[in-house]
Amino acid sequence: MDSLSFDTSSKKSKILYTSLALVGIICVVGTIALTSSNSSSPGLQQFQLEVEEFNHFLARHNKLYSTAEEYARRFKVFRDNSAFIRIHNSQAGSWVLKANQFADVSFAEFKSLYLGTKAQAHYTKRVAEENNVVIPDAIDWREAGAVTKVKNQGICGGCWAFSTTGAVEGAWFLANHTLVSLSEQELIDCSRSYGNEGCNGGLMDYGFEFVIQNGLTTEKHYKYTGRDGICNQTKVANVSATISGYVDVTPNNSTALLAALTHGPVSVGVQADQAAWQFYGGGVIDKSCGTNLDHGVLVVGFNRTTVPAYYIVKNSWGPSWGEDGYIRIAIKEGKGLCGIQMMPSYPIVNK
Ligand SMILES: *[C@@H]1O[C@H](CO)[C@@H](O)[C@H](O)[C@H]1NC(C)=O
Ligand SMILES: *[C@@H]1O[C@H](CO)[C@@H](O)[C@H](O)[C@H]1NC(C)=O
Ligand SMILES: *[C@@H]1O[C@H](CO)[C@@H](O)[C@H](O)[C@H]1NC(C)=O
Ligand SMILES: *[C@@H]1O[C@H](CO)[C@@H](O)[C@H](O)[C@H]1NC(C)=O
Ligand SMILES: *[C@@H]1O[C@H](CO)[C@@H](O)[C@H](O)[C@H]1NC(C)=O
Ligand SMILES: *[C@@H]1O[C@H](CO)[C@@H](O)[C@H](O)[C@H]1NC(C)=O
């Protein structure tokens, strides 16, 4: 279809091309050209509006595709996702969706590219009894300065490494050290013998086991590449933070997770392969995700003075996703919404 060709001489397109070198190209997975026989096509005017909206989206997120076929394919995904988002937002609810950086990614691709917690794996449980803990109305560990800025895992199922570093950063800071951003790449490259699988997934507890044995160096020293790499032992030897153990919080119990959060940020597994996560744009999600854990994130606080009460959760999909990179999740009983109470754990730093 002709109307899909884009004018490379326009100013907007030039901006897109010049930014190519910086951001790379979303990987090509087959080609489905958009055809005019698409029965769900709206009128031509609407169609042109959507093309314009799509081009704005590409400029906003510095995206560029290598071929016209890829452009057409991504445009189709974008239109489907935009329709989904419009329908969700037209129904009154406690959270909104938005066409964020994942708006040109299908649900299936999203699942395979951006998640990565091997939640089925076995590990020794060290369950903590959280008795006699006074739980306050609200905690936000960001306000205490215990949380680093939101990071971006890119196209690598290394979420578990970001959840691990976030928890260690918080525990290290709260043991009266300085807040320092720690290396996910070290965990991705070097913790395979602890059960992790780099960009194919891992578990936060395996990450903690690695840190107990090796400590962790800084983000700055062992930089994130977003790819599986060979472990650099010289960098590993430059230790910036250590932990002495970790606690597996009593699962399936909101009281236990809230009590654990009085100690500092807590790593959790969630199911995030749903639209509620992919396009989350703000608010408190209170339904629409399951409990098949596939993503590791970090709970940095909660608020029980609101209805619904919610957890404050740091994600690793960059600061433009959600609420400046965060998501709020309603506190529910049992496994918790998105399974957030099924696998919480946090590290301990010896005083
Ligand atoms: C949850 O944990 C709390 C505190 O650890 C305990 O008092 C309570 O009985 C537990 N609830 C359930 C349903 O197991
Ligand atoms: C909890 O929610 C209340 C009401 O919205 C707000 O005033 C308060 O600042 C929140 N506390 C935290 C720690 O987020
Ligand atoms: C950190 O330092 C403060 C002030 O010196 C002290 O009150 C607190 O107990 C210390 N915390 C830890 C975990 O050592
Ligand atoms: C260790 O890492 C720090 C940054 O975390 C860096 O400044 C220092 O140069 C490194 N030391 C060595 C010997 O590489
Ligand atoms: C390993 O890290 C050290 C210290 O940063 C660096 O000098 C060396 O080039 C790295 N080795 C490889 C193979 O990248
Ligand atoms: C949490 O609850 C689910 C189902 O309700 C159950 O399959 C799972 O084993 C529970 N986890 C633990 C550790 O009890």
Automatic annotation (TrEMBL):
Matching PROSITE patterns: THIOL_PROTEASE_CYS, THIOL_PROTEASE_HIS
UniProt KW keywords: Disulfide bond, Membrane, Transmembrane, Transmembrane helix, Zymogen
InterPro entries: Papain-like_cys_pep_sf, Pept_cys_AS, Pept_his_AS, Peptidase_C1A, Peptidase_C1A_C, Peptidase_C1A_papain-like, Prot_inhib_I29
Name of a matching Pfam family: Inhibitor_I29
SMART domains tied to this protein: Inhibitor_I29 (SM00848), Pept_C1 (SM00645)
A Gene Ontology BP annotation from the UniProt entry: proteolysis
Ranges where the Cathepsin propeptide inhibitor domain occurs: 54-110
Peptidase C1A papain C-terminal domain segment(s): 135-348
GO molecular function: cysteine-type peptidase activity
Annotated transmembrane regions: 15-34
Family statement drawn from the similarity comment of this UniProt entry: Belongs to the peptidase C1 family.
Name of the molecule in the record: Cysteine protease
